[in-house]
Design goal:
By secondary structure, this protein is an all-alpha fold. It is built from five helices and no strands. The N and C termini lie far apart (37 Å).
Amino acid sequence: MKNEPKIAISTGMIGRYWDDIGSHPRESKGGQVLTAIDCYMKQHGVTKQETPSEFAQRVEEAWMDVNKEWVQTASVPREIALQFLNYARMCDASYNHNNGDAYTDPQMGKTTAIALFIDPIII
């Protein structure tokens, strides 16, 4: 881990960006806490609508790195790389598909959980 493998960095960025997008509405209520989205808007002079799409684009780029690292994994044992991959998948399921923060609001993730565990597709 001291070598900071790209799969570790990329999966961490996926989690960070999805968390920032999903939790921003909850965290910014009241206006007393600055979020990463607020900081990005101020630093780059962009609107509140542009910032989540920029973060989502960065998630897509990080997924490309994760996929490349998964296929070519040599610097990290496969078992460790799988843990990073599963973390990125969990972030994607918790934030992306629910357009919100299903990590802290279980009702948002209810349909995903039902689809995964109650009504899975039988192959």
